[in-house]
Design goal:
The complex is a heterodimer of chains A (111) and B (123). Chain A is mostly beta strands and 111 residues long. Chain A is built from no helices and 11 strands. In chain A, 0% of the residues lie in helices and 49% in strands. In chain A, the strands form 2 sheets. In chain A, strands 2, 4, 5, 6, 9, 10 and 11 form a 7-stranded mixed beta sheet that branches. By secondary structure, chain B is mostly beta strands. Chain B is built from no helices and 11 strands. In chain B, β7 and β8 form a beta hairpin. Chain B is globular. Classes of the chains: A mainly beta (111), B mainly beta (123).
């Protein structure tokens, strides 16, 4: 199984400040089709997860541009340029190159 | 508007069975693979099973293979998860989820999730 490791476990951020979450996979997520199957989700309290970023760096329609994804191979990062109150929740990375596995989650709260 | 609505969650005894359903609308079900993902109380997300758009190919996590069966009825716009030999560790909210890309197999990336249905396995 592909193991996804997220850091940090939690993050407390002042509104308007940036935040960054790391996700590392146990094997490369680059497929032979040239795509890298890494996704980012946000699960707000009491809600199902919502897609933020697909294939490393593509924002899903409707996702604010303060969210950005980067990385390659086995190392990936989600950045929030200026955290807002509505960004609180648990962020998960997910890979789909081999079945599906999720990172353990990063809880983001506002200071 | 894409909508996914799960039902069928309940309290069941260890060793018992349950069938979850997911009613979908807002897209052509047969064009997309579908997935079940679960979340134990206070825990993270765990993939359970997936099925191709036609229903011809199914995929299972090792933890449920041989006990759970995924199926779909595209004419009824419905996805199912038959769960047998339930264990305490199957206790979770079960989410129905839609593939992001329309393919003949299984893309894997999820764009829409239902709100989930709670399965509790306890005596």
């Amino acid at each position: 199984d592909v193991v996804m490791t997220q850091t940090p476990l939690s993050l407390s951020v002042t509104p308007g400040q940036p935040a960054s979450i790391s996700c590392k996979s146990s094997q490369s997520l680059l497929h032979s089709d040239g795509k890298t199957y890494l996704f980012w989700y946000l699960q707000k309290p009491g809600q199902p997860p919502q897609l933020l970023i697909y294939e490393v760096s593509n924002r899903f329609p409707g996702v604010p541009d303060r969210f950005s994804g980067s990385g390659s191979g086995t190392d990936f990062t989600l950045k929030i340029s200026r955290v807002e109150a509505e960004d609180v929740g648990v962020y998960y990375c997910m890979q789909s190159i081999q079945r599906l596995t999720f990172g353990g989650g990063t809880k983001v709260e506002i200071k | 508007e894409v909508q996914l609505l799960e039902s069928g969650g309940d309290l069941v005894q260890p060793g018992g069975s349950l069938r979850l359903s997911c009613a979908v609308s807002g897209f052509t079900l047969s064009s997309y693979a579908m997935t079940w993902v679960r979340q134990a109380p206070g825990k993270g997300l765990e993939w359970v099973s997936a099925i191709s758009g036609s229903g011809s190919t199914t995929y299972y996590a090792d933890s449920v293979r041989g006990r759970f069966t995924i199926s779909r009825d595209n004419s009824m716009n419905a996805l199912y998860l038959q769960m047998n030999s339930l264990r305490a560790e199957d206790t979770a909210v079960y989410y129905c989820a839609k593939d992001f890309v329309s393919t003949s197999s299984w893309y894997g990336g999820i764009d829409y999730w239902g709100r989930g249905t709670l399965v509790t396995v306890s005596s």
